[in-house]
Amino acid sequence: MKIIGLLLVPLTSMVVLWGVITAVTAGEGLELREYKTVWTNLRLPAYKLISEIQRERLISAQLLRNVADESAVAAQRTKTDAARDSFAQLSSKSKDRSEEIRTQVDAVYTQLDRLDSVRGEIDAGLSDRLHSVEAYNSVIDTLYSLHRKVALIDDIPIYEQSRVVIDMGYARELLSREQALGLGTVSAAERRLFTQLAGNRRFLIDQGLAELDPALRDPQVALISSPAYQRMRMMEDQIIAGGTPMGWLSTTEGLAKAFNEAQMRASTLLNERAEPVADEVLSRAFLLAGTALALVIVSIAFSLRMGTRLSKELGALRLAALEVSQERLPHVVAKLRKGEKVEMPELSVASTTVEIDDVGKAFSTVQQTAVEAAVGQAQLSEGVGHVFRNLARRSQTLLHRQRIQLADMQHRATDPEQLDDLFKLDHLTTRMRRHAEGLIILSGATPGRGWSRPVPLLDVARGAAAEVEDYQRVVVEPMSGQRLAGAVVGDVIHLIAELIENATVYSPAHTPVIVRGEGAARGFAFEVEDRGFGMEPEELAEYNERLASPPEFDLADSDRLGLFVVSRLAARHDIRVTLRGSPYGGTTAIVLIPEEHVAEPEPDAPTKAVQKEPAARPMRVVRSD
Length: 625
What we know:
- By secondary structure, this protein is of the alpha+beta class.
- The protein has three domains: 1-295, no CATH class; 343-448; 450-599, 2-Layer Sandwich (Heat Shock Protein 90), CATH 3.30.565.10.
- Helix content is 71%, strand content 6%.
- Keywords: Kinase, Phosphoprotein, Transferase.
């Protein structure tokens, strides 16, 4: 795969480069073509809607001046609503081209929804002319913001001319606002707004005419130099000075219509200019993409032909190596663990390439070395187990003799202090015996301690507590009279003792460790609860996993010998050990003993007598037969 990768890196780079060049070049052409779609679905419906809103604004101003009737206003509102519906229908097809356009179109929808409230204020007489004009102005300003957002195009000349045409259209909008304000007598506030509008309109026209190309500028110049426009400017000056010129509406109406027609012609001309430019860009993109694609195909064919032979040989070597690592070596290791003898055939890979043949021989050598290492590891593990077992057996013999002598000394002792010291020494010997049994369990053997008859589970719990150094803190609560099969008593005592010792070590010295037990539907359950600091959920999950699936013993992991011993003992007798959080903040270990190891109480023994005994009575140590 690396050889193929070496070939694929430059080939992929070529393909990516070809794709980028094609996408960028074709994207420019498609963007130019999209300009026409945007014009059809967004800008043209917006211009039509602006024209209708301008007329509605003018006739609403006339209504407020009592120079227009309500039927004319209603008719114009119907036209505006039709233009609004058309804009909503067409804009929905193109508003998702980008997040910016979608946001602007949604802003237009929001402003259009305000039309009904503006109309209601006018009809109810709650709005004067200035307030009504400004309300319509807000709607139209949002539409012109949409024009500026969607007029972006990668062709700089077309974009610059489109921007100027939009500014000239906005100058026409300012003239329409002047037209609505200049009807009749003008108040001081209206005159201030009128003066600002006139100044802004003249500035936009003067600036735009200087930037338009001749084809777009000449119609605008013809309008600016017409007698009607000059007459309109004189009327503007009169209104600014506080006068009320005659014929204002008729003069501005004709000019507004002429400006609107000039703007539509300029926008249409720009739209027509974008189409041939887009065709040219697309043609160049297809030519460039075709040439680059041909080069890429030739390069791919040549490179793959050169690498096919070497790739096949490397593939055969790879399969042979995978067979060794996934099948041969695991099979050999499994046999070695069982003590069986193994034979490993040599690894051979047919190849005409010297380097690959050398790698095959090297793999064969590595395979043989790995088998030898596995054999050595198995022998070492077995030897360590023998050492553990021999040392533990010797220690057990000595400890057994020591306990016999201690028992004899306890019988002969009369001094209470000496008797107490002998008891402590006997307790220490018991703990040493448990550690010796731990070594035997680590070696894989079975400890020799056992019982021939069932033992009450309460005595099992007490015997486990007696094997712990800090046994004074252990509180064994009363439990039922059920008994434990003698064959598993030693291992269960050892298991519970390990859990109790762990609870005493990892909890404050002044807190008790509670051992309780009760019957369950599938056997008998012991609980060992401490009041320490507890464990994190991740740590609990890790320990529970180890207890459920005992891992292989690792000599380097000596800090967790107790956990390993517990997991081994639990797996030996199908006992389930689970750790969980305690309500007191510590940890609770639950030991579920299967029902096949649990026997009923003795028929002649009173079942309630054991339950009524106080928990603090002297502890009875369970001794082996």
